[in-house]
Amino acid sequence: MKTPLIDRGSNITYLQQNLLNKMDSEDASRLVDRAKELIAELPDIDVNGQNRIGLLLGLIQSGKTSALTTGIALAADNGYRMFIVLTTDNNWLYDQTLGRLKNDLQKLQIESKTTLEGTLLWPPALSQNGAGLVLVVSKNQTKLRDLLKALEQMKAQMGGSLPNALVIDDEADQASLDTQTSKRAKQPTIPPGRINTLITEVRTKFQSCTYLQVTATPQALFLQDRGLYRPEFTILVEPGKGYIGGNNFFSLQWGRAEDLIRYVPQADLDQILTSNDESPAPSLRKALATFFVGATIKCLLSPTEQLKFSFLCHISQKKSHHQKAYNAIMTYRQQLLDGLVSTNETQRNRIEQEFRAAYDDLVVTLNAPQKPAFQEVFEEFTAFINGMEIQVLNSDKDEPAPKYDRRYNIYIGGTKLSRGVTIDNLIVTYYGRQAKTTNMDTVLQHARMYGYREPLLDVTRLFVTAEIEDRFRLINESEQGLRKVIETYPNEQYRVIRIGKGLNATRRNVLNPNNKGYFGAGSSTFPHRPMYKKEEVATITQELDNKLDALYPNFSDPSEKALPITVDQIVEIIRMTRSEPNGGGLWDTERVITALETLRADPTYGNAAYLAVRKNRDIGKNPQTGTVRAVLSGGEEDRLVTNKKYPTLFMFRLTGSKDKEWDDAPFWIPILRFPDGQFALEFNITNTL
């Protein structure tokens, strides 16, 4: 917005007081700062015909809803009156979001999806002096059609036009994208998916509309073709104090994996998922014992509070597997009940040994000046063993939200326990869901152990297979790298997603396969159409001569190999080169630089790189296509590369002779070799500025 920002209006002032009940002033101020970034991107309230597409990018369970409500409050103070919030089609998640909006935005008129039918009396809220209207609608075909009818009625009541709107799509990568994109690449007559079509229609009802996508998993959004659903700007929402996320569990640089992660043998998962044996697998017994001991310790440390804790078992999306897990856990529960009252010392001793092993593990990380003795913990659990609730939460629409009635709450499920769900006081997760190839955004949404859980971290444990841990680690590295690049370039449309062995960035049906590109590990790329006219390259050739002579003085020595350099220096050199936009192939200067910065953000690579320089290359171009012929042979690459674990930039100075179809002017061509490894950098080839 170009008009002066109103940053102390009545809505934001009230909301800030509300935020201070949930967080400290620094975190509350940070949310307001992000809202100011959003307001700067919105079209002026009086300007028509301007549409923007933005992204509010948070972390899993990091408080995106608070950022969303803060943005609405500040926009309302700056003249916006029309807000639509699209939510997931899950009734208890919808109710959760609606409740938070009503609690935070007390001065705005908020209407739910149940009030979209019948005669509307809302236009006064949309007048210049009105309070503002927020419509909260789930992404359901029926409800979206109701919304469209309501908008048409309001449009008629307001003289034929609706005010400029801020449409906020929560979990925008989930149900909003066109699920027919991949099919339509082969059959252009296939129409878009129904939900996508309805959301697009909602957005076109306004003279100006800013469509703000909200998610923690943007892979599908950034890989969209240019159009209505790829973000033009991104606002990063940083987590507040006490947040526990991927870096805590999976970062090799500063995480606590050794403290928090316990391994599940694949055979244990197979026993639960595929056998008819209803006895609990050893690792499941260990996980449950750890949960009971950890929860009991926390209760003993706060005896005046009636605390309740959660255990999550997420090993499959199939209901039949949920039943198997339920049977195994119920068997263990019965063994506990029988053993603790049995006169058979063998039964009781086995239980006591399992609990002691869990206790010995937990006290190592327990953050308490006085640690309860094991016998006290064991006797406390024995007294409260009946305070246990086991709930299976499947995808049935009438399924209630998780209940927290008991001290020990055990949840079993799949998809219903992933996106958007917060499991209160979750301390132990038993996660075994896997496939031969998984989608990064789907797996990341399964990370229910993330969130504001710092007070519980000392008794938190994650039980996974080593393979699943590796996948989570790669996903976390990819996520952190992406966020660092966005932090540097928030309004760039170039986004590169790092993927790895056995991982896709997202589901295939929402992407155009014809526009997917990859920089693979160990691959090389170069501009196929370098600029070569004298007037275009003379000055830059001289500048590169001076720079590269200083960095690589022995270019004439054929035995000289690639020398150490930084990624920052490589980026500087590549920016100095010149090539034709849309010159064919995968080379695009900004895209290549974004790929390099994605690697630089990964501690595996850091800022390390290599440089090799060669001059007097008499390479020609194809006279029919105008593209440069092969520049770097495989044999020369092997001779020059010093360390294949890091990116290497080759700079070749071509003579540019007339008989090779050039302009009798020397010029430089960059060739970038990506490091070896089990990864690829995926991007949409239409991402051009």
What would your notes on this structure say?
- With 689 residues, the chain is α/β, with parallel strands linked by helices.
- 39% of the residues lie in helices and 18% in strands.
- It is built from 23 helices and 25 strands.
- Strands 3-4-2-5-6-1-7 form a 7-stranded parallel sheet, with helices on both faces. It has a 6-stranded parallel sheet with strand order 9-16-13-10-12-11. Strands 20-24-23-22-21 form a 5-stranded mixed sheet.
- The longest helix is centred in the middle third of the chain and has 23 residues, at 319-341.
- The protein is globular and about 95 Å long.
- 45% of the residues are buried.
- The mean pLDDT is 91.
Determine the mean pLDDT: 91
Which sheet architecture does the biggest sheet show? 7 strands, parallel
Helix content: 25-40%
Give the neighbour order of strands across the main sheet. Answer: 3-4-2-5-6-1-7
Radius of gyration over C-alpha positions, nearest whole angstrom: 29 Å
Number of helices: 23
Percentage of residues in DSSP E strands: 15-25%
Terminal residue distance: 22 Å
Q: What structural class results from the helix and strand content?
A: alpha/beta
Return residue spans where pLDDT drops below 50 for at least 5 consecutive residues. Answer: none
Number of strands: 25
- Globular, elongated, flat, extended or rod-shaped: what is the shape? globular
